[in-house]
Amino acid sequence: MSDEKSNLVARLFARSQRQLLAYLSRKVGRDDASDLLQETFVRVLRHGRIDALADPPSLLQRIATNLARDHARRRRTEAKYLAVGVDAGEAVAAGERPDSRLEAEERWRLLQGAVEGLPPRCRDVFLLYMQEGLDLGEIAARLGISRNMAQKHMRLAMARCWAALD
Q1: Which of 6, 48, 95, 165 is the most exposed place for a label (fewest CB within 10 A)?
Q2: pLDDT of 1-46, one tens digit each?
Q3: At what angle do helices 120-132 and 136-143 cross, to 10 degrees?
Q4: pTM of the entire structure?
Q5: Helix axes 98-116 and 120-132, enclosed angle (nearest 10)
Q6: Which CB contacts under 8 angstroms, 24+ apart, belong to 105-112?
Q7: Is the model's pLDDT at 125 over the cut of 80?
Q8: Integer CA distances (angstroms), 124 to 1, 129, 151, in order
Q9: What is the pLDDT of residue 148?
Q10: What whole-number distance in Å separates Cα of residue 137 and Cα of residue 148?
C-alpha cells in the first residue's frame, strides 16, 4: 500500500473511530463492537481504491451497518440452533408442524456433527465463544494463542457450521 493511501486511511480512521465504535456498541454491544470496528477498517483497506471514493465516511458507515446486521443475524441463528443443553425439540416452538420438528432435529444433528468434526483447537475456540460467551480476545488469552488465530478458528468453525446446514 502506498504511503499516501496509508495516510488517507489513518486519517479516516482517526476521524471516524469514535463515532463508529459508538454506533456499533449500540447495535451489537460493547464486547463485539471493537471486533466489528476492526473488521470495518480491514474491509476498507481491502477496497483498494479508497482514494477514488467521493465519500469515504459513508462507505465506512455502510460497511459497519452491514457488519452489525450480519452479526445480529448470526447471533439469532446461533441462539436458535447452537444453544448448549437445548434439545432440538426445544428449538422448535410449541404447536409447530411435526415436519418442522423433524427438520430442526436434523439441522441440530448436522450442526453437532460439524462441531464434533472440527479440529480440536478450533472446536475449543468455538465452544468457548458459544458456551461461555467469551470474546475472541478472552479466548486467545485463555488458550495461549493470538487473537488473529482465534479469529481464524472461529471463521473456520462458522464456515463448517453453515456448510453443514446448506
Answers
A1: 95
A2: 556 666 777 788 788 889 988 999 998 888 888 888 888 877 877 7
A3: 130
A4: 0.47
A5: 130
A6: 107/81, 107/165, 108/81, 110/164, 110/165, 111/81, 111/82, 111/161, 111/164, 111/165
A7: yes
A8: 35, 9, 12
A9: 93
A10: 9
Q: Can you read off the three cell numbers belonging to residue 80?
A: 436458535
C-alpha cell at 125: 475456540
Label residue 158 exposed, middle or buried (CB < 10 Å: 0-12, 13-18, 19+): middle
Quick one: pLDDT at residue 119? 92
C-alpha distances out from residue 86 to 91, 132, 133, 138, 165, Å: 7, 15, 16, 25, 18
Residue 118: name the closest of 148, 150, 154, 84 by CA: 154
Grid cell at residue 11: 486519517
Tell me the torsion sign for CA atoms 149, 158, 91, 70. positive
Give me 8's grid cell: 488517507
Which bin fits 134, alpha (ψ -120 to 50), beta or left (φ > 0)? beta
Cell of 124: 475449543
pLDDT of residue 129: 85
What crossing angle do the helices spanning 56-81 and 30-47 adopt, rounded to 10°? 130
